[in-house]
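Changelog-adjacent note: as of this version, every example in the card shows the full chain rather than a window. The one below runs 83 residues end to end.
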Amino acid sequence: MKNIKDITLSAFAVIGFYTIITAFTSTESNPAQQVINGTPESHVWEVYIGTSNSKYDWLLNKKTGEIMGLSASKSAKISLENK
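Full-length structure tokens:
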């Protein structure tokens, strides 16, 4: 009976020692930094000045195709699909 108790105690001691050792050794790695190579947001919008008779000047988002009409008193928003 004492032999079974010794084996059980030894097994729990080995498991506990293994747990403590693995807790101190971490294999965490830093996530890779995301590299962004592309057009900055400030360079996506392009301005089109309307004629003297038009109510709006226009902004075109070259990335999404969104068009915004700009006026001193109003604004209009138009979305177009890229084809």
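Structural remarks: DSSP finds one helix and four strands in the chain.
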